[in-house]
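subagent[fold] <- orchestrator: predict structure for attached chain, return C-alpha cells only, no commentary.
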Amino acid sequence: MSAPEKPPELPIGYHVENLTTLLHGVMAQYADLLTADEHALVQQFDTLNHSAKSLFYRLLTRQGTLLRQDKLNYGDVPDLEATLLELEQAGLCRRNPPAAVPELLHLLTRPELICSFSPTGHSKLKKPELVQRILEQQPEEDLRRHIQTRFPYVEARYQEAFTTFLVCFFGNSHQDLTEFVISELGHVRYESYSLCRDTRYFQTREQIEHQILYAQTRQQLEDKTCLQDADRLLALAQGLPAPDQHPHLQRRYQSTLIPIARQLERLQQWQPALGLFRLCDRHPSLERQARILKKLGQLEASLALCQQIRQHSQHPEALEFVDRFLPQLHKALGQPSPPRPTPTWPETHLNLTRPADTLTSETPGEAVEWLAAAALSDQHHQCCYVENTLFNGLFGLLFWDIVFAAVPGAFINPFQRGPLDLHSEDFYPRRQPQIEARLQQLTTQQWQDTMRQHFAAKAGIANPFVFWEALSPELLERALQRIPPHHLHAVFRRMLQHPGLYRNGFPDLIRFAVDHQTHPSYELIEIKGPGDKLQANQIRWLNAFVEAGIPASVCWVHWEPT
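subagent[fold] -> orchestrator:
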C-alpha cells in the first residue's frame, strides 16, 4: 500500500498576501464609497513591515477582540515587543485598552483565575460562576490593574472598518479570509470572471450600511431570548431600513424580515406578523399570509390570496402549498373541493438480496441504489447511479459562460462558485436573451459541441451545477447520444424557473439502451427502498417528466426473505 499523499503546504506569508489582496481589491472597486477610517486602514497597513502585517492579520482574525499578549507566539514575528510598538505607532493596535472587567477575567483560564484571585468556595464552580464569584469578592479596579500588569492584552484597531472590507469583498457576512486558504490549498479552482466598478455589488454607501445592519439583525435572531420577546422582534423589524432598487439587497431585506414575521406568527401575534409579511413579495410570505388570514377567520381573503399565488407565482413550493391548502379552505367555506390529481408515473417493483453488511442497519445508505443499478443492467441496458449530478452537469456545461456572465452585482470577488442570484427566481430574467439564444442550440447539433467544449476547457473548475467527479467523459457522451434535445429543453426550462430548488430531486438512476435504435433510448428511475417514500422535490420532477413525455418511473425495492 502506498503512503498517503501529504497535504499541500501553504506558501510562507500567504495570510499577509491574502489580507493585502482583500484590502486592495476593495479599494479598487469601492474607494469612492469608503470612509476616512477605512482609507486610513489601508494606508497604515501598507506602511508596515512583513512581521507587523502578519501580526495585525492575527489580531484581526483571531476569535475575540481582546487577545493576551503572551499568547501571540508566531514564527514570523520574532520580536513581539518591537512589532507591537510598530503597530501602535501606526495606529493599528492598542495595548491594555479600556474594557469591561468580566471580559478581562474571561481572558484567563480557570486555574489562572484561582491562582491570581483565590476566591472562596471555588472548588466546584465552573468558569462563568467563578468569574461572578471573583467580581463579588474584589473591587473591579483592583482586578483590572492586576490583569493589565500580569496578563497584558492587545486589541486591533479598525475592526469595524475591517468588517466593512469583508462585506464589500464577499457581499455577505458569513465568508471570511478562510476562502483564500481553501483556494491556496487547491481545494477549489474558481472560474475567472469580470470584476469592475460597472458591475460591482454596492453602488452607494447606504447599501453597504444596509447589508451590515441586515447581518447584525440576523445574528440577534440567534438569541433564544429574543425569539420569545414579541416587542423586541417588532423593534428589530422596525429598525430594518428598506432597501432601494438593489435586487440582492431586496432579497437580503426580505430574508431578514420573513424570519421575524414567522417567529411572531409562532407567538400567535397574528396582526403584527401579517403586517410584516405584507412588506414582502418573496416565498413564503404569501403562503404565510394565507394561513394567518384563515386563522383570523378571513376565509375569502385567504382564498383570494391562494388564487393570486396560483395565477402569478412561478415558485414550485408556493404552488404546492396552494394544492395542499385549498381543500382546507374549501371545507371551511362549505364549498366542494376539486379532487387532487393522482400520480400518473409508472411504478415497478424489484426484489433484491440485502447485503450482509447492512443486515443490522435500518438505513443501508446508498447500497440499495447501487444494487438496483446492477440488477437493472443487462446486455441491452447500462444503468448508472447519477441522482442529481447528470442533468445538473449538462445544464452547467450548456450554460457555463452565461452562469459566469458579468451581470451587475452577480460577482464581487474571485472566490465564488456561482453568481449571487443563482438560487433565486431572478436568475433567468436577468439573463433572458442569452439563455434563450443558448436554448435555441437545442434545435441543432450545436448544443453538443458547446457541452463538449466546456467539458474540455473547464475541467476541474468550480461550477454550482457541475460535479466533476461524477461526470465522466463516457457518461457525458452516452447522455449526449441518448437523451433527445427536446427532453433537455423541457428539463432546463424547468430548472431555469428557480435553479436553487430545481437542482435537487432528480431520479437516482438513468438506464441507457445499449442499442441506439432501442426505444426508449434512456429512462429515469427513482429507487425507493423498504420504508422509504417520495419527497416533495422528487414528486415535483416526476410530474414534470410526465408532462414533458420524459420516460421516468419509480421502482420500489423489496428485500428477499433471508
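orchestrator: received. Logging for downstream: Residues 199-333 form a domain with the Serine Threonine Protein Phosphatase 5, Tetratricopeptide repeat fold (CATH 1.25.40). Residues 102 and 135 are 8 Å apart (CA to CA).
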